[in-house]
Specification:
By secondary structure, this protein is an all-alpha fold. The protein is built from 16 helices and 2 strands. The chain has 2 domains: 166 residues, Farnesyl Diphosphate Synthase (Orthogonal Bundle); 139 residues, Farnesyl Diphosphate Synthase, CATH 1.10.600.10. The protein is globular, with a radius of gyration of 20 Å.
Length: 324
């Protein structure tokens, strides 16, 4: 079964879900955000991990939907906190309705995610619920750390890596672990797949940081330099702050908290010039490759024939080579 077939199978499952009807203001926002075209990477990882051990992935479809529902719940609440006007090119839920509705609808999404997990066979259910709950709390911890960093002048690179691990990578790890366990994979394999997901998740976020500055605007799908304009503490910014000489440091600091369309292009150019002088792009690419190779080591340690791991290896390569 190829990725396209798995995606179609999952999308069909997603189309059959019923979240609720009344009051319409509570449930319509859920249908709205779930219909927005996303990559569906997390549920696809559930199904790919499951398929490695058994071609019949039927029992993994609803748990995969639970992962996607939870992910979109976090996006809905993140958008409120970030005051984001757009999500995937469309109005965010709190903009289209209001913040209170978005909070309540998100709460229902979390509840429905747990309901979708209750179909897991009895012998695995308690473990699955425990892992799901642990990961859900970690994602919230990552979001809180991200917000904390906005209020701090200094953030270390290890602190940043821990934050993106919690906010982004742990859910990718859970997706793979969940798919494997559902199909009776040996626990060491499930652990290696979880670790593979963690490392890919970190590499994925670092690549996102890189693309925000050096990506092709036409392909990236959003404003290049957006992280610089919002003074976001990305891997690139933190590395530059650590390595900058006095003049470069003052240049970065002088642009902090300056906003407005009139100075946007100049701000991005000035900070990018410091990045270029410090070779930040190359250093970030090295870090991406480091975590990618670490991920592949965990995949290599999974005790299955190489042909069964080929699809998931190919998807990882595709994610790392993306330019949007």
């Amino acid at each position: 079964m190829d990725i396209t077939h798995l995606s179609e199978k999952f999308n069909h499952t997603l189309s059959t879900l019923r979240y609720g009807e009344d009051p319409a203001e509570l449930y319509e926002p859920i249908r709205y955000i779930m219909a927005l075209s996303g990559k569906r990477i997390r549920p696809l990882l559930v199904l790919l991990a499951a398929e490695m051990y058994d071609k019949d992935v039927e029992k993994a479809l609803l748990p995969a939907a639970a992962i996607e529902l939870f992910h979109n719940f976090t996006l809905m609440h993140d958008d409120i906190m970030d005051r984001a006007p757009l999500r995937r090119g469309k109005q965010t839920v709190h903009e289209k309705w209001n913040a209170n509705t978005a909070i309540l609808s998100g709460d229902v999404m979390l509840v429905r995610a747990y309901q979708l997990l209750t179909g897991v066979e009895q012998g695995k259910l308690a473990h699955m619920l425990e892992r799901f709950s642990e990961t859900a709390a970690q994602v919230c911890e990552g979001q809180q750390l991200d917000m904390n960093f906005e209020q701090r002048d200094q953030v270390s690179i290890p602190e940043y890596i821990r934050m993106i691990t919690l906010k982004t990578a742990v859910l990718l790890g859970l997706s793979l672990e969940l798919g494997a366990i559902l199909q009776n994979a040996p626990m060491p394999d499930a652990e290696h797949l979880k670790a593979f997901g963690h490392s890919i998740g970190i590499a994925f976020q670092l690549r996102d940081d890189l693309l925000d500055v050096y990506g092709d605007k036409a392909k990236f799908g959003k404003q290049v330099g957006g992280d610089i304009l919002s003074d976001k503490k990305t891997f690139l910014m933190l590395t530059a702050l650590e390595q900058a000489d006095e003049q470069q440091l003052q240049s970065i600091i002088s642009w902090r908290n300056k906003t407005g369309e009139s100075i946007a292009e100049e701000k991005v150019s000035a900070v990018t010039a410091v990045y270029d002088a410090l070779n930040i792009r190359h250093q970030t690419e090295q870090q991406i490759d480091l975590y990618f190779q670490k991920a592949l080591q965990h995949l290599d340690a999974v005790q299955l024939p190489e042909e069964r791991k080929a699809t998931i290896r190919g998807l990882a390569l595709q994610l790392m080579e993306r330019d949007n």
